[in-house]
Design a protein that fits this description.
Number of strands: 5
Number of domains: 2
Structural class: alpha+beta
Largest sheet: 5 strands, antiparallel
CATH architecture of the largest domain: 2-Layer Sandwich
Helix content: 40-55%
Number of helices: 6
Strand order of the largest sheet: 3-2-4-1-5
CATH class of the largest domain: Alpha Beta
Strand content: 15-25%
Length: 159
């Protein structure tokens, strides 16, 4: 888990878009990503992962498979999609919303924070791309030494 503050929401979004490109290149594997902005004390959270859609697709697949076994694939897909969408909507997966709001209240008004739950990465290549955005490390679950190296890499912006 890594939380990085940026001077505004646009830079946080650009940073996330770059991470999306890096994920397509298989340089990082994100489990979840959230952008939270502090708009004069009001916290706005944008969840990057659409849980309802993910649940619908998963449910339709499993429902169709089970329906196929019992010779009712269409009915199975409909039931599976509905139950998957409901479970996706009700589940709290990835970055904890309470944690996001708690940390975001500590950043100044007009700024934004990017919360990342990273499953796997190639750190040297990812940091080389991400240092263009700068940022201040708010919290991580990294060791103290790794957190200091991350902050140093983000602080050494290329001009």
């Amino acid at each position: 888990m890594i939380a990085v503050a940026y001077p505004n929401n646009d830079i946080a979004k650009q940073s996330l878009e770059t991470l999306g490109r890096l994920q397509k290149e298989r340089l990082i594997e994100l489990e979840d990503a959230v952008i939270a902005g502090n708009d004069d004390g009001k916290i706005k959270v944008d969840q990057a992962l659409n849980l309802t859609a993910a649940g619908t697709v998963s449910g339709a697949f499993w429902g169709g498979l089970i329906g196929f076994i019992f010779l009712m694939p269409i009915a199975g897909m409909k039931i599976g999609a509905a139950s998957g969408a409901l479970s996706g909507k009700l589940s709290d997966y990835g970055v904890d919303d309470k944690f996001v709001k708690e940390v975001t209240t500590s950043v100044t008004a007009g700024t934004a924070a990017l919360f990342l739950l990273i499953r796997n990465s190639t750190p040297d290549k990812v940091l080389a791309e991400m240092k263009q955005f700068g940022g201040t490390v708010l919290r991580t679950n990294l060791s103290d030494d790794a957190e200091k190296r991350l902050q140093a890499a983000l602080s050494s912006e290329s001009a």
